[in-house]
Please model this.
Amino acid sequence: FRAPSQPLKSVSFLAVHPRVPIAAALAGTSSAVMSEVSETQPHWSPLPEEWRRPLPLSSPNARHHMDKIGWPQMQESLAFRQLWLEVALLEKILYKNKSQHRGAAHFKRLQQVVRHLRLLRELSIPKLVEDAAAPFITRRKVLAGQVPRSPSRQVVGFLLCRLFAGCTLAEEIMEAIQ
Model:
C-alpha cells in the first residue's frame, strides 16, 4: 500500500487494483453490468486473491475479543439496508421527474447525491470488512500449536483507503444536500 503522491481531487483513487469493481464504475460501466459481474462470480471479494492470506497474531485471545465487540451487530449496521431502500425510492422519483425538472438546481443536486450514493454502494465496504475480519471470526477449533491470524498489511491499507473514500463521498453528499 502506498499513499498517493498528489492531493486527492476526486474519488478516482479508488481504483487500487484492476479487479476492484469501483474502477469499472468510475470508467462509466453501469450498475447493471456490475451486478451481472457479481452474479457470475458467486464468491466475489473486493480483495485480490494474493492479499487474502492472513498473518499470524501474537495474541491467542483475538477471537475472544472479536466476540466481545458484537460482530453480528456490527455487520448488520454496515449493511445500510434502510439507506439503500431509500436510495432506490429516490432514484425512482428522479427517473419519473427527469423531463419536468431537468434544468432546476435542486434536481441537479439530487442527481449528484444519487450519483455519490451509487459510488458509495460500489465501494462494497461491508463485504470488504467481512473479508478482512474472516480470520478472526472462524468458528473452527484451534488445533494445538496453531497460531491465530490477522489480515495482512495490504488488506488493512486497502480497507482504510476504501473507508477514506467513503468518508469523502459522505462529505460530498452532505455538501450537495445543503
